[in-house]
Amino acid sequence: MRRFLFAFAALATALTGACRGPELLNAAARDAGVVQTDLAYGPLPRHRYDVYTPHTLTPDTPVLLFIHGGSWQHGVKEQYRFVGAAFAQAGVQAVLVNYRLFPDVIFPDFMDDAALAVAHIKREVAGDRPMLIAGHSAGAQIAALLAGDPRYLAAVGTDICSATSGMIGVAGPYTFTPVAPEFRAIFPPDRLEAARPLNFATGARPPSLLLHGTADTTVLPERSTEYATALTAAGNRAEVKLYPGVNHTLIIGAISPVIRAAAPTFNDMLSFIQAERAAGWPGCNR
């Protein structure tokens, strides 16, 4: 049995790391609900989002806004169709967003895009229904910073406690220090402290679920534990779940039913949403 699990994990890692990995994961995404693509949340070409709506939509159906990763340089929402389909099948309306990337922009321009998306989707899609924000890797950093630094959402006429009921970060670099030259270009030294979610853990924050693989060498799992410690020290609710042997790509690919057995990412995200729902969506209320 153990040999089988190791073999399965190796296969799953190869699949998510392959250049055609997203295509294969998306090809297996079935019954994605009602899908609307390339809707606009702003005036620029990258200001686009897709909506995956469950067949049954109720006044309490939650919305999950997902921000993709890609080192702030790569990625498109279409690569994550399997994320939208998985949550729509589970009764959660999923929204996948694009944002501007380096070298066209640097920090904090993509933060402004994400804030604009949150405000628009809360107003035009979620309305009075609860909305959570989530992201993987660079997307998790963006989601966490939206949840921490109030300036971004204030600039678009809202705030994190009004707009969202929770934040889910998957393998996020919440305490990072850029080393590679391209990262130093994206985050100039005079803006670096403002880019670290760790620096904005105090004050009322929505409940956070932080997921990380122990085999992640792209973003070390300590990033999640350090951020959670800071949030809880400030009186906020934050939970970390570490997945033994799971790496940076496998943790997000495991949302797909093709390799879901490789990591409990989907089940833990869904359980978090359901628990907040059962509690009456307390949000920032501690």
Give an overview of the whole structure.
The chain has 286 residues and is an alpha/beta fold. It has one domain: Rossmann fold, CATH 3.40.50. The chain contains 11 helices and 8 strands. It has an 8-stranded mixed sheet, sandwiched between helices. Strand 6, helix 8 (181-186) and strand 7 form a beta-alpha-beta unit. The termini are far apart.
Query: Overall mean pLDDT score?
Result: 91
Q: State the distance separating the first and last CA atoms.
A: 43 Å
Q: Percent range for helical residues?
A: 25-40%
The total of helices stands at 11
Major sheet: order of its strands? 1-2-4-3-5-6-7-8
Q: What is the CATH C level class, in words?
A: Alpha Beta
What is the strand content?
Answer: 15-25%
Tally the beta strands. Answer: 8
How large, in whole angstroms, is the Cα Rg? 17 Å
CATH topology term: Rossmann fold
- General form: globular
Structural class of the secondary structure composition?
alpha/beta
- CATH H-level superfamily: Alpha/Beta hydrolase fold, catalytic domain
Please give a quick description of this structure.
With 286 residues, this protein is of the alpha/beta class. The protein has 11 helices and 8 strands.
Topology:
Layout lengths: L1 H16 L3 H7 L6 E7 L7 E6 L9 E5 L13 H9 L3 E5 L11 H18 L4 E6 L1 H11 L2 H4 L5 H4 L2 E5 L10 H6 L21 E6 L8 H12 L4 E6 L6 H4 L11 H14 L8
Parallel strand pairs: 3-4, 3-5, 5-6, 6-7, 7-8
Antiparallel strand pairs: 1-2, 2-4
Helix pairs in contact: 1-2, 4-5
